[in-house]
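Hey, can you fold this one?
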Amino acid sequence: MKFSRNGALVSSAAMAVFLLSAGTATAQQQEAASDSDIVVTGIRSSLQGALNAKRNAPQVLDAISAEDIGKFPDKNIGEALQRVTGVQLSRADGEGAGVTIRGADPSLNRVEINGTTALSTTVGGGRDVDFRDLPSEFVNRLEVVKSATADMTEGGVGGTVRVITRRPFDNGGKTYVAGSAQAIYSDIADHMDPRVALIASDTFADGKLGILVSGTFENRNVESHQARTTGWVRLDSDRTTPGLQAYDLNEDGAADFFPDIPRYVINRLETRRYALNGILEWRPSDDLTAYMEGNWTRSNQSVTSQFLQTGTSGGLVDVANTVIGPDNTVTHLEMINNPALAQTSQLGVSYRNILGDIRRTTYNLAVGADWTSGNLKLSPKISYSKAQAYNNEINATAAVTGMSRLIVDYDNPQQAPQIILPNDPTTIAGINQLTVLRRPRYDDQAEKMAKLDAEYTFDTGFLTSIKVGGQYRDLTVKSRFFSRTTTLNGFSDPAVQSQISAIVAGNAGLGTSPFFNTGNLGFDGGYTGWLNMTQAVADAVGVPDPFAPGGCPANADGTCQVFTDTWEVGERNIAGYAQASFAFDVGSVAVSGVAGARVVNTQVDTSGFLRTAQPGGQPALISPVAFDSKNTEFLPSINLKAELIPNTLMARLTASEVMARPLPQQLAPRFTLDVVGLSGSRGNPALQPFRARQYDAGLEYYINKTSFASVTYFRKEIGSFIQNTTEPFTDANGVTYAITVPSNGTQKVTINGIEAGAQVAFDFINIPVVKHMGVIANFTYSKDSGYEGKDFFTGDSLPFQGLSRKSYNISAYYEDDVFSIRGAYNWRSKYLITAVGRGNNPEFGEAYGQLDASLNLNLMKDVSLFLEGVNLLDATRKENANSIYRRTIIETFGRRVYGGIRFKL
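Sure. Predicted structure:
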């Protein structure tokens, strides 16, 4: 089945023109009919809530309401956000993980839960929020704020995501218990999993005290399959001559690209997710509201990911049988072993498993109040946020080294690697090395916050209110890393070889599902399975203890702690702001707006360790280091809106300055090396923040209480941009590594774009079926300039990282009192992942689209059955190294189907 993007856009445009015309023609009739007596529920009610949030906001804002989330087949907040104009989703094993807003990386967006900072659980220390663990059942409304006001906490260059949870007085304080129970079927894993959610709310003390609690539990067998080529490199045809003598097998004068580490990956994560949310709210009078609220999430993942991977560095190219195709890229590779190399460096294949477990925990607590006395409103709040990630990685790898020949064929419609080995990968044949390592990492983030907002409203005059406030935030980010390895080599020791064979034969399996049994790999007849180095294999070798005293004698003091990747970053932010709201008339046009400025002072303290090589083969000297820096930012903003036609046509103009701080891991004094890829990275404690100026100009046409159309031009000028540069590093053995270092570049990146959207209910068409239908569509076009990233080989300019030039969402629904059905298609064009990937090629994510749908059947009042499907077209996700003939990832995660029951008592 094909989905025509151009056809979809043309159809959407034609539909929008028709609907606007129809809506205008019927506007007076709707007013005359008076809809005050009509009670709207279900999808239309949610769309009205989203429309009102957009229309009433002082900023440029898009929203999704609770019913809207419930009716989409979106099981976490990230997957719900992909429906918003200008928002693009990144996925992890098929689940929505992070969002890009108007081209800004997920780490450049701020995420708040009821105004409290949501912290990152990214391994290694980030700022991006992993939405996989945030259930959509808790949410009353999601807001994506794309322009800033002075009272907003800084940190969102792309925008601010506001997660607004349900509260006990949302429905007038009525008592209710609601929930859902469902089964989840994944066709790639052929597995059925449970998911339950429950929410309860009640009020006490004559309706002055309210409490709401909610919880979810999910057991998911998350799985994805990948055919990967880790990089595309130019190989040296004469290693005895200094410099690179690159192969040019087709003799066209240009060097050829060869695959580096072709491999197959089956990612398996048995995931148990728990989430709790609670709010206690006290309203003794109309002038005072006090609250205490918090939420907690926990994700426990048991990892059994399985790899079959090869390498090209240990072989010699069989030039007679190797074929070069388009873009000077190998389409068929044959290599023979190079016995002149050390045994461990010769041609081979590895059966590797990533085992262990990953535990992510987040929680936040907040206490606050809103107190009004006459025209003065005071809003104090204190909060504490915590995020912890523990990655207890265990690797078990069986290797065949000294393999006689390797064939990798890419001559298929997907340009996927078809690996052909001289040995059977389902047997122990040829295995002569067994390695087990354990690499636990602990990442912790904590933020303490206190703020006070004061707003005074005026009864008459040009000014409607003045608002001032102050905020203190103290963020601490810590990362600790340990590593220890045990290796059994059977090359020259028959006893060890016998031990290796016995361990693998007695404990390895073949996995639980055939490789790439969903999606489109591009060829048939490949390997469907290979040796699975299970936890039993690791246990038989003995998982090394990285915490044992003297466990790593090659290091100083014998410790296995990797001090050069152990660090702490502290940020103390003091901010103050003042803003004024105003309203006036220009002739018959009502104009209102908010103008103000925010000043924030940040002090950054970083600490870590420095490694200094010692002569004579002595262990390197490890010494502590510390750095500090500070900066002050002035962030003005103005947001204007004008009612060109009262309650119908609105214009918006905004201008603001925003900022986002570097990643903690970029600021940390850290240093890491990849001995396989001869690469590494280090931090830079002197980094300055991202800074940007942004502008919006838009029109919003409100057809009725449910339907609207809007178009917005936006411009984002990103300065003080952080870019990655590369510098050489030579270790004590004379091996040179390419080290990636973040630095503040002089480049100024500008993004210009257009967002267009519409949601239209067909209730003005008095035809029995059609009047229950509606459509929601949006389209975003973005174009960047000024980014100085270049293709290493051609010198061609590259687009801004993470920015898709085009993206759109289209959904259609039908809903009556008994039955509803909804379909949604989301698509984004290609985007740059990194300017310099492995082998120095830029790497791109290719265009990707996904169709989801949901069906709901009301059995009785407040009880319904539902069936929901995700990725119904079984889309395959792809990445490449600047050519479709140099694919780096081809990924399938299959379809997911949810079926269950919802109720409300």
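The radius of gyration is 29 Å. Let me know if you want another pass with a different chain boundary.
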